[in-house]
Predict the structure of CoA pyrophosphatase.
Amino acid sequence: MNRVELPQWLAPLVDLAGTIQPADFGPLLPAQPSSGERASAVLLLFWEDTSQGVPGDIRILLIRRASDMRNHAGQPAFPGGTVDPTDDGPVEAALREAVEETGLDPSGVEVLATLPELSLAVSGFAVTPVLAWWREPSPVRPVDRAEVASVHLVRVADLVDPANRLTVRHVSGRMSPAFDVDGLRVWGFTAYVLDRILHLAGWERPWDRDRAEEMS
């Protein structure tokens, strides 16, 4: 797709995709080929919701994982999962998983770029974020309740609202940026990626980094 065909609000993300480096993700480490981590991919799917006639209502698709899953139970996340042998790389894996989890129509998704592969050592995954534009949004829902508890169309305006931002400490001792949006507390890997994307795209607003809470 030619750049002129993209909506103007998407320009910061397109520019970002061409320049971002693993070091830009801060404490998230680049995946190492010899680490034995399983290749996986997540879909960072942005779009402008014009259904209410409000310009600039940029959103991103998130899910909340089922509470009894083996890894990251109950956590908010980007759609995604393991790259299967039948997948032609992380882009196909991210789209396939998003379809399986939310029922979206992949024909309406325009992939912009793959971002640097990151290590999610706590669960043994090497994760490739796939940046995409939802050119033609379609209905979404939890397809398999054993994997997905809910699907969320989260406003970027809510993510960057300082009132919704904080730092959390997990019982493991891990510190993470966090967002309280749409009835979710987004933290961990998903929050780290969101934090960096919002900052590097120039969308971040100043927030109280001293506001910290414990997580159960």
User: Anything to note?
Assistant: The first strand starts at residue 38 and ends at 48. The mean pLDDT is 90. The chain has four helices and twelve strands.
